[in-house]
């Protein structure tokens, strides 16, 4: 998947950066040195085992994600609520249930208790077996209020996390030299649908100490909509009140958490409970937790009397309540190989995905641009949402449902660890920083995206010098840390009239991605381009920019709350500012593409962000004349898959195969970067970025 830069190019780039550093003042150098060194690392934070509605054990999912597909970090995060199957039993051999977590941390766990398995699961075997049939004391070992049925009693997720899933995850991390493998949660959100969350407190302490995921388990009990247990976590005796909250009066006196009844007003009441949960995270784990709404367009618009999607006002409420915890969304969903890509039906906001991305981020000038236009630190993420391979087994390369974590979608996150080993806190800090990007299908595997101020005279910066710094950063899989420059998730503060030099360096990796298909991409073949599906080529990069006008007050009812297309959910200043392609970028033999432009005489605060694809503009059923992604429902079953090697599971109409399912996903690849902000002194503040 990765190749090394040519040594000559690296040497030239480093020499140019040395020259730039030499020209900088002592203060510049000190400020640059003050930012801890880091690299971009790949991971996934939303996926499922049989402890929710997945098909694999914890061990096998970790093995596939970290060992087979090479992720640097991994968060196992199934649904909240309860489930009847024991996901800690490996596929083969069938092992005894692991002992419950020893919360006293006084006794080591037996070595080799949690081996990874390799055989496909079968009904009633391995992790398909029930808790009540595999616990040493049977159903008596299941705590809290009764759930499920007498033939398949369910265990509450809080107990699964605290006593069973976490010990397995810790062991898997230890086996891999303490690689960051930890426990999160896909919260079933009161008033809404789902959110990817984690609280890392207690997890993965330095050996030989034993850790715990009690904080994560408590959050699930307290704030998950599907967790209707009222036992206070049995012997844990949890209390879910939020320090200083005016809503603590809503907490049930027995369950010690807010209980929301279904029906009229349940969506509104659920949203209040959700915000309380975010406030609780901010009060108890302010730097060690995150809250990222998942596939947030999928369930449609918010329903005040039910549990559906997220409107823009809810995202604003989350970010206002805890900007260091609720700082982005997962608008690039998993389930990319489904016939309804992303599992988005016509009932989703936008009617489906666009190039595999929900309309909140895919639409220029829409919800994401509206939030960025306020100057909010609100960032873009993706995930696998792995459940299963559809009609295929987990060890087959084809899929009619999901891709494994790291196989197709990757979050590239800046982890600043200096000379220390990669750790969980560096991952959470990296997510919060917004210094990250998401790429599908190995379209790119390196990105250096930087904006630098340039002033007349001694403060001048040339395009060539900034570009050289970006090339050197990309070569080292890091970012540009020079004073007077900013990268993704950061803001560059400049005087009015400054020029801003924007440099973009990506690597389109030489070689094959993980696609099992080497026949020609059907979407490109229809326009006369022959390109193997497993060797995609970056076609172009779009630079999207918009003005920053400041935060919208919750009291501004016309501009704070509204559906997509409304003034509240729009940024009319957002536009396609620049497009780079083979005729306007400089290409190096190793797949590196470098490009630079200048924003002249800035007077208004603004931001820039990137997206890129393997598809040219005006590709039928895929992109419009401006290169914007089209509704994916328009391509499934429309583009012929005429190659003799086109697989039999494609949609077939009147004997003709059409690109669909995993072939359609491998055909249509995108990457999205997070924004760089430019704050002009005396103009609107970019208040959400330090």
User: Kindly state the mean pLDDT as a whole number?
Assistant: 91
- Discrete helix count: 15
Radius of gyration: 25 Å
Beta-strand percent range: 15-25%
Low-confidence stretches: 1-33, 100-121
Q: How far do the termini sit from each other?
A: 35 Å
Main sheet record: 11 strands, mixed
DSSP summary, beta strand count: 25
In brief:
The protein has helices spanning 7-23, 26-33, 58-68, 131-134, 157-175, 214-223, 266-284, 312-321, 359-362, 367-373, 424-433, 463-475, 522-525, 557-560, 661-667; strands at residues 38-44, 73-76, 82-83, 155-156, 181-183, 185-188, 194-199, 289-293, 328-332, 379-382, 409-416, 436-440, 446-454, 485-487, 491-494, 499-507, 540-547, 575-581, 586-587, 592-599, 606-613, 651-653, 656-658, 670-673, 676-680. It is an alpha+beta fold.
